[in-house]
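Notes to self after the Tuesday call (sharing in case useful).
The group wants a holo model before anyone commits to mutagenesis around the pocket. I volunteered. Ligand is iron/sulfur cluster. Logging inputs and output together so the record is complete.
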Amino acid sequence: MLKTPVFYKRVNRVTRSIYKGFMAGRGIASKPNACIFTVTKKCNGKCLMCNVWKDKAEDDLGIKDIEKIFSDPLLDSIESLHLYGGEPTLRKDLVGIVKIALKKCKKLKTIGFSTNCVAYKPALEKIKGILEILPQDFEKLNVRLSLDGLEGVHNKVRGLPFVFDNAMLMLEELKKIQKSNSKLGVSIGCVIQPANVHQLDKIYEFIKSNKLEYAFNHLIINPSSFFSNTKNKELTFTDSQIKKITAFLKRISGEQIYEELYTNDIINMYWGKRRSKSRGCVFGYSTIFIENNGDVFMCMNNKSAKLGNALETDLSRIWFSKKADAIRKDIKSYCGTCRSDCGKNWYDIVRYILKKKIGLLK
Ligand code: SF4
Ligand code: SF4
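Result:
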């Protein structure tokens, strides 16, 4: 059977992911292939599980500083860029930021961001603006709509009475755009939390009936993460809720072998255990995280892991510094209880398959 270029691109990506995982296991850093860039911390949401909207909004980097940062050769290997927030679509010059990234990162193939759909009309205009400037060989602009429940539950979690309706309107508009533009990817992001555990099956049914991609993320309580949240009654799971989450995750993880390893880990962490992977995730090897003031971090779940500031020191020097290597080693002590699955890599998956499924590794 003749294989398509898409097949070869996937093989390429998996191979690179295996390589990154292998190198990470040995503590060896190479240029990152993904970048998460906080374009703004401003947010028009009022979410239960996040304190970003309560914090006083800092000034965001201006377009000239962004251009300077993206001109660093460290980012010329970037294939995937995630525009992070706050609410990224609040940035008036979002299209301009994407233009800079496309100009500077020649290997860039995918750009993504999540949106809370609060101001969905201006957000749609920005999405259209970005689609217009994507080069022909660009793969996907991935837009993830936050949906933490159906109707009242979503409105309660997001703290606004109209946000579910806006999410539905935005979804319909994006589906229309998709009909004429295959570069637009649309998915649903749901943060599993006490307020929506009883609706997980319904949310999943909704996603499936709309034939959408999805990500179920897990509440991370940590004042040092970008959520800056702390444990409170509304964010504390009961044992019966954890049992429901366990059953739900087991049911949906059966769909993809890629998910199984992480699902097992995350279920264990819900029950208070540490993740089974000894190396932690490959975040600090494959992905660079740059904040809206130029601060560079090893990952977004530990703000004590600051490597430097990209306005003060060149990114390449920051990334390959002794300090960065020390933090890469040290962060493993933190990874054990972090419910993030953002460091998924095929090296761990292949080892998992060989060990658990085929019995070849001890
Ligand atoms: S979770 Fe996202 S949308 Fe909600 S307040 Fe925080 S940054 Fe804003
Ligand atoms: S597991 Fe969590 S703390 Fe560790 S590197 Fe990944 S995101 Fe950061």
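Two things stood out.
The pocket of iron/sulfur cluster (ligand 2) is lined by residues 280-281, 283-284, 299, 301-302, 331, 334-335, 338, 340, 342-343 (CB under 6 Å).
The first strand starts at residue 34 and ends at 38.
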